[in-house]
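Morning run. Coffee first, then this:
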Amino acid sequence: LPNFIGQYFPSCEDPDQYAFYCASMLLLLKPWHDIASDLKTLSQTWESALQTFLTQAPLEVHHIISSVQYFHQCERSAQDWKMQEAGTHVQGLMDECSKDIDQGDMQAGTTTTSSAVPLNEQDVADLLSSQTPRAEEMHGWLALEVAHFAGIFP
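And here it is:
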């Protein structure tokens, strides 16, 4: 049996990994005995070998390939949503901070100086990316509980 390296199959939308994606799909879906000759001919590229195979493949094979891509589409959507949420959260924090500073200046009547190094956008982005969202952490705990209950972990 082939041993696929990594946690997931590569995406077909990554041009740097497309040949590896094609080879992985052929290894997974095309029956073969001799890896050197059954998956593609010497004159074929991995891309053309996969296209040739898919023209003759049953509908079930196309569903499997769609499922592999579905994972990548979901992952990309989750990343986009997370970035959008992080941007909204940062803007809200900045608005709150500016209100606090304005109110503090009005109440005390003086301005305060700070010896702290000012933060830039990269510092804020690094801080946000280092934190685990509460929903993601809860999902992890629940997944572990389900696995433990199902007897996956002793």
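The chain has a mean pLDDT of 78. Good start to the day.
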